[in-house]
Each structure stands twice: as C-alpha cells, then as structure tokens.
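Record type: monomer structure entry
Structure origin: computed from sequence
Chain ID: A
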Amino acid sequence: MAYIAKQKVKGKDYYYLRKSVREGERVISKSLAYLGKTREEAEVKAKELIKKMETKVENNKPFEKVSKPEEKIEIIHKKISVEDLANFCKSKGFIFRSSDIYGGFAGFWDFGPLGIELFNNIKKVWWDRFVSQKENMVGMEGSVISHPRTWKASGHIENFNDIFVKCKSCGKSGKLDEAELGVIKCDCGGEYESQGKFNLMFRTEIGATDPDEVYLRGETAQGMFMNFKLIQQTSRVQLPFGIAQIGRCFRNEIAPRDFLFRCREFHIGEFEFFINPDEKKCDLLDGKHLNIKFRFLDEETQKKGKGDLNEVVMKDLLDKGKLGEWHAYWLAEQIMWFNELGLTEIKIREHTKEELSHYSSATFDVDYEYPFGSLEIAGNANRGQYDLSQHEKESKQSMEIFDDKSGKKVLPRVIEPTFGMERVFLAVLTKAYSEDKEKKNVVLRIPAKLSPIKAAIFPLVKNDESLVNLSREIYDELKKEWNVNYDSSGSVGRRYARNDEIGTPYCITIDGDSVKGKDVTVRDRDTRKQIRVKILDLKDVLKKLINGEIDFESSGKLIS
C-alpha cells in the first residue's frame, strides 16, 4: 500500500512516496521515491510510479526501495535535577505552578492532565494494597476543617513548630527542627541563628459574623482518631484493625522548596492501626516480613555524627528491641510496597530520642534516594495511646471499646504508617526518567499499572478510511477499560517518541494486514519489541501485561 507523505525541512514542504511493507513479521514504512515540493506535483509523479510498481520497470527488475539499517536500542536511566524535572513536568502536562499567569504562588502546585492520571493511579494502587486487599482495614474521608479543640487535644497548637533561622554570614533564611539547630549549617558554611519558633498550622476563620478561628488540618490522622469509635461500631470490626485515608493537608512552611517535595498544600496517605495495648504478638508477621533486607541508619550511628548504613533484616531490629512486632510488620509492608513499585533505592532511618514527635515513642523514616538527595518519602510511628487518651481528656468522652478477644474494654494503642503522596509521585518520575541513547529523546519508563495513558492506537496512515475506522473501533473498545490515546499525526516513529516521553507502555499500530487478518502490531516501550495480536484477544492481553501477569514476548506472535 503506497501513500504520499509530507515532510517539513527548515520550514519547507517535501513530498515522498512511501509504502508499508513487512520485513519478516515486522511492519515498517519505507521510502520509495522523492515526489517534489508541491502536493499537485507529488500526486502526478505518484501515479506514474505506482503504475510502474504494479507492472515492472523496463529492465524487468522489481522496483527498488530504500531500506533502513536495523536500529540499535539502548535506553539508560538519566539523573535529572529538581529544576529540570519541574520544567519537564510543565512541558508535558504533569505539573504546573499554581496561579502560573500571576507568576506562581510559592508552595502550591496544580496537577495537569497527565499528572492527575499518574497521581490517581498511585493513590489507587496504594488503596488496593493497604485497604482493599486487607481483611482488617477500612477507609474514610475526613473534612479539611474540624473543631479547633481537635488541635488543642492533639498537641499541634503547642508543639507543631519549626524554628525560623537566619544565616549569620549571608542572611539566608530557612527553617530547622530543634534537634538540627547548631548542627546544620548554611550552604555558604555560616551558622544559623534562631529567630524564634513558628507554628505550622494554617489559620482561617469561619462564620459571617463573630467568626471563629479554626485551622486547616496539618495531618489526616486526627479525623481517624475522632471517628474511631463510630467506625468500629458501624463497620463491626474487631481489634486489631486499621482506618486509612488519603487526603489534603496544609502546613505553613517557612521555606517551601524542591518542587513538590516541600509544599504548603499536599496529600498524605496514612492509616492508624489500632491494637489491644496488651497484645504484643503479631500473627500476621511471617518470614517474608522478618527476612526483608534494607539499608538501616540507627540512632547510635547518628549520635556519633556518622551516616554509615548497614544492611539488615527486620528480625535484627526486633532482636535489638528497637520496635515491636506490629511495628515491624507495618514497616516491612511499607518496604514491600515500594519494592513493588520498583522504588528500591530506599533506606530506613531511626529517629533519635531528641527528634521524636510529641506523640511518638519510636519513629522510622523511609528515605528515598532522589537525584537531589536522600530524603523522607514515608514514615512509621508508634503513637501508643497518646491521641485517643488526649481526645478522651479534651472531649470528656470515653474512647474505650470492647475487645472480644480479651473480653474487656480497652483503650487501643496505635501504629501509624504514613506516606507523602506527592513525594511518591516525584520518586516514580525520577526513577522512570530515561533517555534513548541513540535518538536522544526522553523515555519515561513508568510501571504500566501507574502510567497515565495505558496504550496509544495508531492507524498507519490517516487518509485510509478502512484503517481509520478499525482504529477508532479499537480505541472506543479499549477506552471503556483504560485511559488510552488515539494518534494519527506524523510518522509512526514520531508517534512512538511522543508516547515514550509521557510513559505510554504500549503502542498499537493498525495497518493494511489488520483489516484482512484481524490482528494488530503491539510495541513495547522499554524493549521496542513488537508482537502481533489478534484484535479479539487484544483487551485481555493488555490487561495481563498491565497487571504484570505475562511477559511481553509470550503475549503474541513475536515480530523479528
């Protein structure tokens, strides 16, 4: 099937005759001849050449076509700075500065069309892993504003502070935790001087007349504590059980920085897991939790002023008494989830006694190795009975529940795994950011289950009605299941590149043989390999590929 293709070179149009042919089992587009600089000239020459192709040329040899050498494929991970990542995200529609037309607003960001798809997919796999697939977990969605006494009870009004500091040498301002004052120095080497404590809670007012001062929530946890008894009664769950939610939180950061990493508005995914205070054994803790390996920075090493990491297994921490069994179970579950996403560049850091939050007796940070440093992506705290007892005192309402197993009323203790959802988003992007070494274009190797667009559908040529109709039918059918893209603009190679840049894992090409044979070519983003799949099987094959149930090469007839 020969067709006319236009190519723009330095602003000028050039027309070529091309043809879709099969080399072995692979469908490629080959250039046959140059046709001229105008459409009219190209159409006249094309008719003459096609006529010659249908017969033979005078010397009785087949019409010679230009072939291309086989491409060498090498896709490598590429480190990217936080500034370049922000620019990339803006250019592709992942993230924009909030109020961009007014020059942006520090600490606030908007998710674009691709960004919200990726973010929603991250939240979905989080919810599936920690709520839907757990027998002892339920979810909720709390309000952003709650009674102001909430934050008095929780200790946030008194204790939720950072220290505002200024460098004695260069005058640069910022914030430090109390434990960091006198230890952390400015980038210029100068010492920071405290300017006083600064409460991070966002204040606002409600009520048209005689307004009350209230706060935007600084964490999602308190909604789960306040609704704890109602959820236990209505859901009929028994200890041990957890309550989870993902929601917006607000912190009046002194110095928001590093793109999405430190914002004033962000999402936390966390759950409070309630346990009988006398129950020390965790019946869910098994070999895969006890033997999971990770890099660990303990309190003792930090107090010596060192940052040396040791490879340990979770059982080592249990044996040293650094945490209990339920704490170990949930910390291991967090590590497993990050491993499932391919985010293996993590370490666990134990909080020193001096830096523990007011509500915690033991806390561990999960730090991820971003291109701009090893920084906290998640955490896990033993909150004990602090929050429930504080709300009990402030509200004068009992927070005890009846425990069937022990046969008595108890005030549960709590383990709290927490995830910074925008920080997970950043980690996924920085891990996925890669480059085709030969072509120098970006390849975003996002896991298929997280990718904003799961597949792109291409008719080989856009002016062939039969190909377009079949492509549209496939697109409409796949759209019922996933977010997919229809693209008929430009060469197939260019379409591949556009989708590589935004992380689309599979591209589906409909060619002349598709109409006759009822099959299509599916191309894999990361290996560039292609398979031929029957249209009737396409949805099922894609579902299994996206879910990681089958490998690509065995999903259809491999094209050599």
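Annotation 1: The CA atoms of residues 35 and 42 lie 5 Å apart.
Annotation 2: Residues 113-132 form the longest helix (20 residues).
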